[in-house]
C-alpha cells in the first residue's frame, strides 16, 4: 500500500469560493458540455447511490429509540455546523488540471477540480435553500496524489488498478486530522469527509455511486466520480447524515418510499393506477408499499431530482430551483420547531412560512392498519408538497402546492408518502377540492384545495358526515371509471394484431 505522496495546497472555504474562482487560473470549463451528457445519466446515478447506504439506513433505523422531545430538539434559531472535508484523490502522473476521463487510458481526471467544487457548492446551496440557517455547511477542499493500492479484473480478465476500501478509510482519517489541525477548525462543527477518487476505479464505487456511513462517531461519504457531477447524489448522501439532535448527527434520514394504490393482476397488467378509498379498504384490496424504496418524487431521498443549475444546451443559464429538496415530512424531522396542529376537522392553510402552521400530525392508534402496512409507522402527517420545479420559494403564493399525506416512524427518520389519490400527485383548479386520504379508524377524510391565489389548504372532514361520504362516493366512482378504462386497454392489447 503506497502512502500519500503529495498534498497540494489548494484549499478553499465555501464562504469565499466565489473569490477563489475569480482568482483561479483554471481553464474555463463548459458546464453546458457536462449538462449535455449528464441528463440521462442522472437517474442511473441516483438509483445506484442508494444501494449501499440503504442497508445501513434500515438497520440503524430499527436500532434507534426515541430520544428527547422531538419538539425541542432544534429551535428555529439554532444552527448545526458541518465542515465538509472534500478530498479529491488521483494517481501520480495524472494532469491535475484535467477532467473528462472516460477510462481511455489517458492521464486525465474524471471530474476535475472545478466540477467537484461546482457539485459540492450546488449541494450546499440546495440544502441551505431548503433548511435555511439550521444546517450550515462549509467546505475545506484539498487534492491528494495517491496511487491506487489494489487492483481488480474486468470482464475480459484484464487487471486494472483500484482504490480499496482501506484507502477510503485512510483518507477519511487523514481528512479528519487535517481539518482538526487547521487554524480555522471549529470544534463545534461536525466533520464529514467526502472522498472522491478522481482518476482510477474505487472498490466502493462498485457498490454504489454514493455511500453515506451513518456513524455518529465518524460520519463520512464516498462518492464516485464515474457518473455525472450534476444531480442529487451529494444532497442525498448528506440527507443520510443530517439529524436535528447534534449528539446524533450522522444518523440521518432513510429513503422515502410510497404507499401506492396501484394494483396489478396476476399477469402483471395494471388494473388500478390510482385510487381513492379509505386506507383500510385499500390495504384490504392489496395496496401496499411500492417495491421501489425510493419511490417518492418529493425528495432527493427518493427519486426526486431537482433544481439542477447551470446552463441548458443552448447555453442559457438555468436559475437554481427553489423547490425544497426534502419532503415536508422530512423537513419536519430536520426542523422540529415547525408549527403543527392535530389532524382534526377543519380547514387549514398550511404554509412554509416560519411563523405559520406547517402541517398536521396525529399519532396512529396501536391497532391502526398502517402499522401493519408500513414498517415502524408511528404518526400520520399532512403537509404541503410543492407541485413542480420552480424558481420561486415554497413560501411564494405563485408556487403551486398540493396536500401530501405521509407516515412517519417513531424516530422521525423514516417517512413514506401515502399516495391515495386518483391521479397520483396533482394540482387542482381554483375552487375545487380533491380527496387525498380517508381513514375509518381515525374517522377522517382529507381534501386538498386551492381557494385562490396562493391559498392552498387542507380540509379535514369527519368521515361520518354526509358531506364526507358524498365526496368519498364520488371519488370511488371516479376510481372505478378510471380502472375500467385501464382494464379495457389491456383487453384491447390482448387482441391479435390485424394486418
Ligand atoms: Zn441512500
Describe the protein.
The protein has 499 residues and is of the alpha/beta class. The chain has 2 domains: 6-248, Collagenase (Catalytic Domain) (3-Layer(aba) Sandwich); 256-484, no CATH class. It has 9 helices and 24 strands. It has a 7-stranded mixed beta sheet with strand order 13-10-21-20-19-18-16. It has a 6-stranded mixed beta sheet with strand order 1-3-2-6-9-8, with helices on both faces. Strand 4 (150-153) and strand 5 form a beta hairpin. Residues 1-71 have low confidence and may be disordered. Zinc ion binds next to helix 2.
Layout of helices and strands, plus pairs?
Layout: E1 6-7, H1 17-23, H2 31-62, E2 80-90, H3 112-131, E3 135-145, E4 150-153, E5 159-163, H4 165-181, E6 190-197, E7 201-202, E8 210-213, E9 220-223, H5 233-239, E10 256-260, E11 263-264, E12 270-272, H6 279-285, E13 288-289, E14 310-311, E15 317-318, H7 328-334, E16 339-342, E17 346-348, E18 357-363, H8 369-373, E19 377-386, E20 401-409, E21 415-419, E22 433-439, E23 444-450, E24 456-462, H9 466-494
Parallel strand pairs: 2-3, 2-6, 5-7, 6-9, 10-21, 16-18
Antiparallel strand pairs: 1-3, 4-5, 8-9, 10-13, 11-12, 14-15, 17-24, 18-19, 19-20, 20-21, 22-23, 23-24
The structure holds zinc ion (ZN).
Tell me the number of strands: 24
| CATH top level assignment of the largest domain | Alpha Beta
Helical residues, percent: 25-40%
Helix/strand-derived class? alpha/beta
- Name the average pLDDT: 82
Biggest sheet, open or closed, and with what strands and sense?
A: 7 strands, mixed
Number of domains: 2
Low-confidence stretches: 1-71
Amino acid at each position: 500500500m503506497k502512502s500519500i505522496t503529495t498534498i497540494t495546497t489548494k484549499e478553499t472555504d465555501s464562504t469565499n469560493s466565489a473569490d477563489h474562482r475569480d482568482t483561479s487560473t483554471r481553464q474555463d470549463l463548459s458546464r453546458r458540455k457536462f449538462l449535455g451528457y449528464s441528463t440521462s445519466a442522472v437517474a442511473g446515478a441516483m438509483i445506484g447511490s442508494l444501494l449501499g447506504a440503504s442497508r445501513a439506513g434500515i438497520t440503524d433505523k430499527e436500532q434507534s429509540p426515541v430520544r428527547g422531545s422531538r419538539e425541542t430538539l432544534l429551535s428555529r434559531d439554532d444552527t448545526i455546523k458541518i465542515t465538509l472535508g472534500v478530498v479529491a484523490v488521483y494517481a501520480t502522473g495524472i494532469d491535475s488540471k484535467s477532467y473528462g476521463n472516460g477510462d481511455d487510458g489517458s492521464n486525465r481526471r474524471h471530474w476535475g477540480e472545478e466540477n467537484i467544487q461546482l457539485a459540492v457548492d450546488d449541494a450546499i446551496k440546495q440544502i441551505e435553500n431548503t433548511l435555511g440557517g439550521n444546517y450550515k455547511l462549509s467546505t475545506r477542499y484539498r487534492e491528494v496524489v495517491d496511487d491506487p493500492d489494489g487492483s481488480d479484473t474486468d470482464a475480459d480478465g484484464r487487471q486494472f488498478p483500484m482504490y480499496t476500501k482501506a484507502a477510503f478509510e485512510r483518507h477519511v482519517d487523514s481528512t479528519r486530522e487535517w481539518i482538526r489541525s487547521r487554524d480555522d477548525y471549529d470544534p463545534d462543527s461536525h466533520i464529514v469527509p467526502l472522498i472522491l477518487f478522481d482518476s482510477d476505479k474505487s472498490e466502493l464505487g462498485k457498490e454504489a455511486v454514493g455511500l453515506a456511513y451513518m456513524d455518529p462517531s465518524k460520519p463520512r461519504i464516498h462518492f464516485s466520480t464515474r457518473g455525472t457531477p450534476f444531480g442529487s447524489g451529494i444532497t442525498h448522501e448528506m440527507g443520510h447524515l443530517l439529524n436535528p439532535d447534534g449528539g446524533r448527527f450522522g444518523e440521518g434520514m432513510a429513503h422515502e418510499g410510497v404507499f401506492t394504490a396501484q394494483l396489478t393482476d396476476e399477469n402483471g397488467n395494471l388494473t388500478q393506477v390510482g385510487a381513492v378509498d379509505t386506507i383500510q379498504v385499500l390495504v384490504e384490496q392489496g395496496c401496499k408499499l411500492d417495491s421501489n424504496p425510493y419511490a417518492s418524487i418529493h425528495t432527493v431521498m427518493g427519486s426526486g431530482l431537482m433544481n439542477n443549475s447551470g446552463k441548458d444546451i443552448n447555453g442559457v443559464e438555468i436559475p437554481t430551483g427553489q423547490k425544497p429538496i426534502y419532503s415536508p415530512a422530512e423537513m419536519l424531522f430536520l426542523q422540529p420547531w415547525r408549527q403543527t396542529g392535530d389532524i382534526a376537522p377543519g380547514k387549514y392553510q398550511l404554509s412554509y412560512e416560519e411563523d405559520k402552521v406547517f402541517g398536521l400530525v396525529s399519532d396512529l392508534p396501536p391497532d391502526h392498519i398502517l402499522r401493519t402496512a408500513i414498517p415502524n409507522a408511528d404518526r400520520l402527517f399532512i403537509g404541503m408538497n410543492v407541485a413542480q420545479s420552480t424558481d420561486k420559494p415554497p413560501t411564494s403564493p405563485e408556487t403551486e402546492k398540493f396536500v401530501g399525506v405521509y407516515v412517519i416512524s417513531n424516530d422521525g427518520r423514516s417517512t413514506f408518502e401515502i399516495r391515495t389519490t386518483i391521479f397520483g400527485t396533482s394540482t387542482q383548479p381554483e375552487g375545487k377540492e380533491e380527496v387525498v386520504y380517508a381513514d375509518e379508524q381515525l374517522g377522517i377524510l382529507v381534501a386538498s384545495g386551492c381557494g385562490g391565489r396562493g391559498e392552498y389548504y387542507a380540509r379535514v372532514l369527519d368521515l361520518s358526515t354526509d358531506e364526507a361520504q358524498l365526496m368519498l362516493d364520488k371519488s370511488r366512482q371516479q376510481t372505478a371509471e378510471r380502472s375500467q378504462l385501464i382494464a379495457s386497454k389491456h383487453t384491447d392489447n390482448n387482441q391479435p394484431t390485424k394486418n
